Amino acid sequence: MNQKSWIFACNTAQVGIFYLNPDKTFTLVSGPYHLKFLDGYYPLHVSFAVTYPGDRLRFTEMKPVHPLDMHPMLQAGKVSIDTFFEGRLIIKMNFQAIE
Questions:
Q1: CA-to-CA distance for 52 and 58, rounded, in angstroms?
Q2: By the 8 A CB rule, do 63 and 54 touch?
Q3: Is the bond preceding 32 in cis, omega lying within 30 degrees of 0?
Q4: Residues 49-73, buried b or exposed e (16+ Cβ, 10 A)?
Q5: Can you tell me the distance from the alpha carbon of 70 to that of 16, in angstroms, rounded to the nearest whole number?
Q6: Which end of the chain is more exposed for a tag (fewer CB within 10 A), N or C?
Q7: Per-residue pLDDT for the chain (99 aa), expressed as one digit of tens each?
């Protein structure tokens, strides 16, 4: 029987870097998330949440640079994901200014 063991580690960070794109949108990049040992990656669980001023920004899309089908959970002024994955994960979230 082939069973995977999940590793749980708690890391917390407060990051406030939004990059201004040429089209006047903003991008928040987070990652890469991974845990590698020798020639392979361990499975990981990532809970990721971004709070932002909902009266000034609007979430437009998320691009995980990983072969996962992740769907963000949206609330007013907050976007979050909760996923299990194996390998490397880079999360890119795009926002647009509200005029």
A1: 9
A2: no
A3: yes
A4: ebebeeeebebeebebebeeebebe
A5: 22
A6: N
A7: 455 555 555 666 666 688 999 999 999 988 888 888 888 888 888 888 899 999 999 999 988 765 566 778 899 999 988 888 888 888 889 999 998
